[in-house]
Design a protein that fits this description.
This protein is of the alpha+beta class and about 130 residues long. It folds into 2 domains: about 1-20 and about 90-120, no CATH class; about 20-85, 2-Layer Sandwich (Dna Ligase, domain 1), CATH 3.30.1490.440. It is about 45% helix and about 15% strand. The chain contains 6 helices and 5 strands, in the order H-H-E-E-E-H-E-H-E-H-H. The protein has helices spanning about 1-10, 10-15, 40-50, 70-75, 90-105, 105-115, and strands at about 20, 25-30, 35-40, 55-60, 85. The strands form 2 sheets. A 3-stranded antiparallel beta sheet has the order 3-2-4, with helices on one face. A two-stranded antiparallel ribbon has the order 1-5. Helix 1 (about 1-10) crosses helix 5 (about 90-105). The two termini are about 20 Å apart. About 10% of the residues are buried.
Length: about 130
């Protein structure tokens, strides 16, 4: 939603590379005293491969609200350790198109989008 706002009303910010997205981790994997934030399922698999699967605690983050303030500061806010992604115009255009399809007045494009992509959904937080 914010990306669409920036694209529609502040396009030069995106064109000139001033807009970034903070990338919080998807998982926190712990085994004994060792812990690692994982930003993809591949990183989680690598952690499990290197440390074994037995006795590993995995916390799945579905949103920033599931992190405590310390975790959020460490992973998403701290310039030393955060991961950020520069937004490109192509990203903003795609976000604007999807937002218009899903939130627009026309029902048929929304129905087609849902029917086309329904099988791709792996995890829905209801």
């Amino acid at each position: 939603l914010l990306l669409t706002f920036f694209y529609r009303y502040m396009t030069p910010l995106i064109e000139n590379g001033y807009v970034y997205i903070g990338m919080p981790p998807l998982f926190l994997a712990k085994k004994g005293k060792k812990q690692q934030y994982c930003y993809s399922e591949q990183e989680l698999d690598a952690f499990l491969e290197a440390n074994g699967r037995q006795g590993v605690l995995i916390q799945r983050y579905k949103g920033l609200g599931e992190m405590n303030a310390e975790q959020l500061a460490e992973t998403t806010m701290n310039p030393e350790s955060r991961t950020i992604l520069r937004v490109k115009v192509e990203d903003a255009v795609a976000a604007d198109e999807i937002f218009s399809t899903l939130m627009g007045d026309k029902v048929e494009p929304r129905r087609e989008f849902i029917q086309t992509h329904a099988r791709e959904v792996v995890d829905i937080d209801i």
